[in-house]
Amino acid sequence: MNAVNIDMLTFLKNIVNRTTIDYMIIDNGGAEYQLLPMIAIENVLEDNGIVICQMNVEIYAPGPLDRLEQFAEIMLAILKAKRFAPIHSLYWGHLRTFFINIDHPFCVEKYLVQFFEEQST
């Protein structure tokens, strides 16, 4: 049997064929160390017309030391890029981290503004 590999951008643009993804779950056995920077730092998807508003990413345990350093570099770069904010993390052998897009106006309006509007009583 032949297996076909396609990259994430091609899959989202040509097969999923949506410009906005409200919620994406990423659990891909270690490749998150390449995908997370592509999405949250390098902005590859948004530069190609695809907006992700929320992501739940399973990050393989950040150890041994080389992976721990890579994890720290990625998280620092995500914070510096100011596109996504890590909102919640849960460690259970791997690190399940929830990110929200704080940069794109559609995502901010749909998922964040409601928490910062003044409530009238």
UniProtKB/TrEMBL annotation:
Residues 3-78 form the Methyltransferase FkbM domain. InterPro entries: FkbM_mtfrase. Pfam families: Methyltransf_21 (PF05050). It comes from the Eukaryota. This is Methyltransferase FkbM domain-containing protein. The lineage of its organism: Eukaryota, Metazoa, Ecdysozoa, Nematoda, Chromadorea.
